[in-house]
Amino acid sequence: MINKREVYSIFVYFHTFLVTQFSATLRVFQSDGGGEYLSNKFKHYLLTKGIIHQMSCPYTPEQNGLAERKHRHILETAITLLQTAHLPPKFWFHACATSIYLINRMPCQILQHNSPYFLLYGSPLVVHHLRIFGCACFPLLKPYNSNKLQPKTSTCIFLGYAGQYKGYLCFSIRTNRFFVTRHVLFDESMFPYSYVLPVSPSTFSSPCLHPIVFPLISPPTPAAVSQPLLSSNSFSQSALSPHSLHCLRLCLFCHLHSPLSLLILTSSLRIYVWSYLFHH
Fold it and tell me: What would the DSSP string read from start to end of the chain?
């Protein structure tokens, strides 16, 4: 349905479908006060079919609570399918159609844990063909190829179940084309559209920056310069000169921080040591 002007024709088709397929009789029609239900053509059809039209009070959606709750159920399920598959809103129709397809096949507590499909058709429910919406699928494209050098399959997106066919609805990102086929392989662990959509900058988390506090290193005294950096007993604590203590403090500080800082300060220490040896 593109606009609300098509409500009348869709309602006529739906009423005919109920009578033909299920031999059902529609006696009461409940709706809100929308203009699409108040047209002369719609009223005349209800009168000729003997259908009573009941409307909810203005700005009182709770009087039409059954339809409102079911609409919310379908919409929230469709949003979940779109978000899980990373699909854009332009696929809302396929998400809503798949939501209805799944809801009709799910057990419901109010129906004594039976599915609406079972109560309507009386046949056992078959679920082995269900697949994850939006996952990667690989349909057989050989019948659609124009020459023998084209690939027999390509990565597509599973967008639901074809209503008039016993097959799956596949969408090709590369060609923007839909395929209806029953020969499909699925990879339900991959969602191709998650690699297509650009990630907005707001989704990136900025790295946590911590200020680096450098240790205070006092310049060496003349007495300390005249002493060797390490004495013969280099492993004893009393043999370490002030220069060695400064170097150890720098190395320990760099080890506790990032490896990049360790590399930079190690290079600085080498330059400092060579400069010291050259002048002495």
Answer: --SGGGHHHHHHHHHHHHHHHH-----EEEE-S-GGGSSHHHHHHHHHHT-EEEEPPTT-GGGGHHHHHHHHHHHHHHHHHHHHHT--GGGHHHHHHHHHHHHTTS-BGGGTTB-HHHHHH-S----TT---TT-EEEE--GGG-SSTTS-S---EEEEEE-TTSSSEEEEETTTTEEEEES-EEEETT--GGGGTSPPPGGGSPPP------PPP-PPPPHHHHHS-SB-S-TTSGGGB-HHHHHHHHHHHHHHHS-HHHHHHHHHHHHHHHHHHHHH-
Q: Which residues of 234-257 are buried (b: 16+ CB within 10 A; e: fewer)?
A: eeeeeebbbbeebbeebeebbeee
15 pLDDT more than 70: yes
pTM metric for this prediction: 0.66
Over the stretch 66-114, which tens digit does the pLDDT of each residue have? 999 999 999 999 999 999 999 999 999 999 999 999 999 999 888 988 9
Give yes or no for residue 193 having a pLDDT over 70: yes
Give 30's strand partners.
54
CB atoms within 10 A of CB 134: 27
Q: Are 246 and 229 in contact (CB under 8 A)?
A: no
Helices 242-256 & 259-279, crossing angle to 10 degrees? 160
From CA 128, how far away is CA 75, in angstroms rounded? 25
Q: Give the pairing type, strands 52-55 and 28-31.
A: parallel
